[in-house]
């Protein structure tokens, strides 16, 4: 099969650009290829952007995310069969973190599903898995009275994350959100993992209280044409409060501190949810509907399959993805795992990592070593998340 990202002439496809590309470029973004998109990596200092999210707020362009609308009389039944979540149990205006699995229980992608109306859902997937998710959903749609629509090109997605996020949205000129009480919520009453309607510059948008940083915050789904004006208005409101535009580099260290998985690192087609500590979502005990991959995840991973743990290390030298995890020299020093994500934590001040290790060395408190460019760095298994925001 030909890779859809490579045209017939063999040349790589050009990177896709967000509707906010010009706005983020003007803000000083340095760009990188992420899932086939030309996305902001940083605007200046990774550390400054990270700390802004922890202390005030960060503004992220995440328009590379893939969005699919699902509607129709059997929309809930279709998603119940297609995804691990008990989608039909999601209340209107609420959201659920879930996964779309292969028959063998491997993860095709992790998703967020919003129920916007009785028979209307929004499924949000990772940029690099757009085609895989679209293909799987389309195949699983057969026989259901439901419609699948790709909304990726029509929507832009902006995230405001940090302890002052709500205050910034209240101060954003042109953003109207409390009077209509759309979907039964106001901005101040919106629960975590919920969504509400709003209006900006006369155009409808959706405000979700979700995120990928470990902080409170909001994600705003807006039509692509209106997105640059919304970006400017959020900057106008937030800059006096300490908001900074933030890129993918800060987003990665933030999500790592919060112990959140990244597809292609902690999740993949070769990993079952239970190995990544996410067995509780696939399947939930209350779900009665069958779904693709159910038998495999109920049987569980193969005996001895490695499991995901958090590691805290000493000093300042951080392990990185692909570095080996070793048993202590007193126990033979053999390789017992591999790091999937690692960094020197800007918030905590010491190295942290996520790693898949042998079950025998996965208990909290277990002493291990990290092979950092030939040096053994002492580490210890710790409970996740590494960081929890203050209430």
From TrEMBL:
<dbReference type="GO" id="GO:0004047">
    <property type="term" value="F:aminomethyltransferase activity"/>
</dbReference>
<dbReference type="GO" id="GO:0005960">
    <property type="term" value="C:glycine cleavage complex"/>
</dbReference>
<dbReference type="InterPro" id="IPR006223">
    <property type="entry name" value="GcvT"/>
</dbReference>
<keyword id="KW-0808">Transferase</keyword>
<dbReference type="Pfam" id="PF08669">
    <property type="entry name" value="GCV_T_C"/>
</dbReference>
<feature type="domain" description="Aminomethyltransferase C-terminal">
    <location>
        <begin position="306"/>
        <end position="387"/>
    </location>
</feature>
<feature type="region of interest" description="Disordered">
    <location>
        <begin position="1"/>
        <end position="22"/>
    </location>
</feature>
<feature type="compositionally biased region" description="Low complexity">
    <location>
        <begin position="1"/>
        <end position="14"/>
    </location>
</feature>
<comment type="similarity">
    <text>Belongs to the GcvT family.</text>
</comment>
<dbReference type="Pfam" id="PF01571">
    <property type="entry name" value="GCV_T"/>
</dbReference>
<dbReference type="InterPro" id="IPR027266">
    <property type="entry name" value="TrmE/GcvT-like"/>
</dbReference>
<keyword id="KW-0032">Aminotransferase</keyword>
<protein>
    <recommendedName>
        <fullName>Aminomethyltransferase</fullName>
        <ecNumber>2.1.2.10</ecNumber>
    </recommendedName>
</protein>
<dbReference type="GO" id="GO:0008483">
    <property type="term" value="F:transaminase activity"/>
</dbReference>
<keyword id="KW-0489">Methyltransferase</keyword>
<dbReference type="GO" id="GO:0005829">
    <property type="term" value="C:cytosol"/>
</dbReference>
<comment type="subunit">
    <text>The glycine cleavage system is composed of four proteins: P, T, L and H.</text>
</comment>
<dbReference type="InterPro" id="IPR013977">
    <property type="entry name" value="GcvT_C"/>
</dbReference>
<dbReference type="InterPro" id="IPR006222">
    <property type="entry name" value="GCVT_N"/>
</dbReference>
<feature type="domain" description="GCVT N-terminal">
    <location>
        <begin position="20"/>
        <end position="281"/>
    </location>
</feature>
<dbReference type="GO" id="GO:0008168">
    <property type="term" value="F:methyltransferase activity"/>
</dbReference>
<comment type="function">
    <text>The glycine cleavage system catalyzes the degradation of glycine.</text>
</comment>
<dbReference type="InterPro" id="IPR029043">
    <property type="entry name" value="GcvT/YgfZ_C"/>
</dbReference>
<dbReference type="GO" id="GO:0032259">
    <property type="term" value="P:methylation"/>
</dbReference>
<feature type="binding site">
    <location>
        <position position="219"/>
    </location>
    <ligand>
        <name>substrate</name>
    </ligand>
</feature>
<dbReference type="InterPro" id="IPR022903">
    <property type="entry name" value="GcvT_bac"/>
</dbReference>
<dbReference type="GO" id="GO:0019464">
    <property type="term" value="P:glycine decarboxylation via glycine cleavage system"/>
</dbReference>
<dbReference type="InterPro" id="IPR028896">
    <property type="entry name" value="GcvT/YgfZ/DmdA"/>
</dbReference>
């Amino acid at each position: 099969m030909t890779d859809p990202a490579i045209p017939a002439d063999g040349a790589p496809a050009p990177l896709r650009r967000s509707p906010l590309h010009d706005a983020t470029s003007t803000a000083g973004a340095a760009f990188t290829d992420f899932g086939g998109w030309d996305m902001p990596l940083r605007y200046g200092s990774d550390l400054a952007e990270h700390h802004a999210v922890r202390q005030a707020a960060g503004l992220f362009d995440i328009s590379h995310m893939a969005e699919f609308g699902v509607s129709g009389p059997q929309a809930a039944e279709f998603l119940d069969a297609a995804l691990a979540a008990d989608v039909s149990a999601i209340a209107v205006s609420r959201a659920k973190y879930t996964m779309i699995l292969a028959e063998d229980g491997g993860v095709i992608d992790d998703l967020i599903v919003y129920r916007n109306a009785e028979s209307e859902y929004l499924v949000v997937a990772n940029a690099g898995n757009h085609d895989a998710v679209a293909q799987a959903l389309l195949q699983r749609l057969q026989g259901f009275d439901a419609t699948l629509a790709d909304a990726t090109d029509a929507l832009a997605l902006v995230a405001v994350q940090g302890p002052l996020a709500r205050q910034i949205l209240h101060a954003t000129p042109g953003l109207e959100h409390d009077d209509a009480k759309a979907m039964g919520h106001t901005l101040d009453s919106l629960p975590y993992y919920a969504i509400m309607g709003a209006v900006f510059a006369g155009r409808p948008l959706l405000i979700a209280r979700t995120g990928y940083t470990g902080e409170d915050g909001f994600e705003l789904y807006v039509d692509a044409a209106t997105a640059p004006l919304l970006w400017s208005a959020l900057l106008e409101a937030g800059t006096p409060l300490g908001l900074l535009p933030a890129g993918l580099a800060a987003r990665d260290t933030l999500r790592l501190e919060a112990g959140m998985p990244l597809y292609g690192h902690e999740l993949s087609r070769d990993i079952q949810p239970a190995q990544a500590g996410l067995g509780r979502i696939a399947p939930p005990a209350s779900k009665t509907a069958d779904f693709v991959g159910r038998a495999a995840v109920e049987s569980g991973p193969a005996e001895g399959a490695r499991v995901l743990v958090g590691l805290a290390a000493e000093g300042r030298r951080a392990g990185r993805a692909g570095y080996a995890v070793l048993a202590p020299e007193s126990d033979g020093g053999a390789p017992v795992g591999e790091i999937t994500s690692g960094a020197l934590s800007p918030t905590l001040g010491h190295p942290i990592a996520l790693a898949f290790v042998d079950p025998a060395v996965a208990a909290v408190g277990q002493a291990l070593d990290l092979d950092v460019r030939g040096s053994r760095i002492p580490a210890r298994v710790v409970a996740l998340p590494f960081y929890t925001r203050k209430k």
